[in-house]
Q: What sequence folds into this?
DNA sequence: AATTAACTTATAATGATTCTAAAGTAGAAG
DNA sequence: CTTCTACTTTAGAATCATTATAAGTTAATT
């Protein structure tokens, strides 16, 4: 239900405006993780509502959610920033050819040895990206 | 010796000009991996040679080396692109506070389980980034 | 309804990267 | 050594993502 969204907005210090609730619907009203760029999110909103939304509002809202842990930024090559509605620590399969980005389930990956850390430092976050491509690439003849 | 550079330039399809040889000296005339951004590389060259180099030349040359496998691009959050003179498949320790980026030796890390891949796909590359921070962060009271 | 801080928006500014086109140079050929 | 030409360098413009600005709009409180 919609109160769910309002909570996320309120705890992020944001008033539930029409625009923000639309953003929430796209981001959080789904079962699966959603991986997105700002500009794709903007397009989806405008298609859904048949009206314009300001780019600044999309940036501001997504950043507020990021700062409050409801979305996270993903490190990938390429010009635009990708965000992820799964803000848990998790990893990705990335297909550069198609642009597909899939969550890896925690039970499907295991990092069993980590390097020694510099004195006085501790691990903050681990990000693993497995890039994939078609079997047909660089095939032996 | 310098012939080493010339080879890398030639096999990248580039004439060994004064500017390109300078870039090579900075990138390849060292024992350790070098992690850099375009604009830091440009500054280093200009300090070393006490003369200007065009930004376009730096971009063009680094991209040529990237396309020929002599440097690779690293996926990190942040506005600028990082490159790496270690073009082998390897992983990184990253300290966002200081900007330090360290190679992880292959024997110091082990990914012992990888997820099933989509039909018809194979692994192209695996990138692991371990972000670190000071022990003092978020300490229990 | 009145008040006000928060908000949305169009637009400008910024910063990284890429493009352009004119002037300079490496290397081949004579 | 000189000429020729394709390749290269360069300054500046263009592009594109992102951030800042500031003027009008709205949510929330009284
Ligand atoms: Mn890139
Ligand atoms: Mn970022
Ligand atoms: Zn994800
Ligand atoms: Zn490295």
A:
């Amino acid at each position: 239900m919609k109160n769910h969204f309002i909570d996320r907005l309120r705890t992020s210090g944001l008033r539930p405006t029409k625009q923000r609730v639309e953003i929430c619907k796209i981001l959080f009203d789904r079962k699966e993780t959603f991986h997105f760029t700002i500009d794709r999110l903007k397009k989806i909103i405008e298609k859904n509502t048949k009206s314009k939304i300001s780019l600044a509002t999309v940036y501001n809202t997504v950043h507020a959610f990021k700062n409050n842990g409801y979305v996270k930024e993903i490190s990938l090559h390429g010009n635009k920033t990708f965000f992820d509605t799964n803000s848990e620590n998790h990893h990705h399969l990335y297909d550069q050819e198609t642009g597909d980005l899939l969550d890896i389930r925690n039970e499907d990956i295991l990092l069993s040895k980590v390097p020694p850390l510099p004195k006085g430092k501790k691990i903050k976050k681990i990000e693993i990206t497995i890039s994939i491509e078609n079997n047909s690439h660089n095939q032996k003849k």
